[in-house]
Amino acid sequence: MNASEKSSRPIHSTPQSRLAIGLLAALFAFAPFASAGSENLPAPVRIETGVSGHIHPALCITAKGTLVAVFCKSEYKPHLITRSTDGGKSWTKPALFPHTTETAVYPGSLTTLADGRLVHAWNVWFSPEEKVKSRFVAYSISSDDGVTWSEPKNLAKNADQKIHSVIRHPIVELSPTAWLFPLADRTVLYNPLTGEETAFGDPAAHGLVPIVRTADGTLVSGKGKRSTNGGKTWQEMKPFPDVSTQGWRHEMIALKNGWLLASQIIGPGVGGEKINFIISRDDGKSWDMEHPVELYNPARAIGGRACPRTVELDDHTLGTVFYDTDEKQPGGSGVFFRTMPSATLEK
Questions:
Q1: What is the Cα–Cα distance from 269 to 303, expressed in whole angstroms?
Q2: CATH class in words for 42-345
Q3: Using an 8 Å Cβ cutoff, are 135 and 166 in contact?
């Protein structure tokens, strides 16, 4: 056999070349994992520095596209609010949130209503008796993209005031007079016009987990349950991302295209080592546990619980606020915002 015949010989005709092809095939089989790495995302934008304790940010986007974020800078207070009108590239200097300057608070949630108003719900510490602390939920409404806020209204304290009533996730606006509040001690419908609470659905308490309504009207609970009849009955889903064990820490949102996104924090310790997203592409029936999408991986332990909160900036971009209390990172501890192309969520 001459040299020209050797050079034209098919590559797959030798054991060595077949092994090489097999290795390449294996490499491409793992391509979804490689493409989901956070190293290809825009760098996080620092919103605040010098944070500690239960920071737990919340995030929403207004009908005009303004981003509004709230968080605690340290334990109990100060409770701060900041806004961005350029898609999260820059943020206003965090300012004291009105109505919380005289009270000790635990962070809550932000919700954008169908009519464009914003609802900020937070948790107020109080002492039902000496040396005992508990919490109840208060909320305030903004009609001007988060610039000014109404006087707060309070939800009822638990009948046993030693039991904490806490909110950490957005409310679900079922109608203008029926807001679904997923609280730690109860899951209820609340009428903002009358202040009346009524039982929701079956009416089991789901605990401090997110509940979302999908584009098809399905309700999905962070307890790993799904309802197609308004919460009257629920079907269990397995496997399901573990957003329940520490329900206040995790998130789940319904995207406009019908998909769902849930957080998954990987690794040991308090904050884990990376923040991933797990996606459902079939109205919450199944979850793609095999292809996590990486949002944040500092190659070290994350300081604090991270508590990511995500919104859709537009049809092509997601934005997430989270925190990291590691003092050794450049700039020290902080609250951050990071964007991600929506296409990253595809298989």
A1: 9
A2: mainly beta
A3: yes
